[in-house]
Specification:
By secondary structure, this protein is an alpha+beta fold. About 30% of the residues lie in helices and about 15% in strands. A hairpin with a 5-residue loop joins β1 and β2 (about 15-20). The longest helix is centred in the last third of the chain and has 16 residues, at about 45-60.
Amino acid sequence: MGAQPRFDAYGRIAGATLIPLGELGRPRVDVMVTLSGIFRDLLPLQIKLLAEAAFLAHRPTSRRT
């Protein structure tokens, strides 16, 4: 997908940012996510982070970065 975690001032994961295509060195890839209940308590945060990364990668402006 070409994204990396974004951290807040306390070092906690706060979201996702895209890696510029020039730095990534490859095209962005399609990703399929399969949800599992094994992460029970962490699942909402993980899905939020993956959804943010997918949203950023899908934006038309991300194709040029």
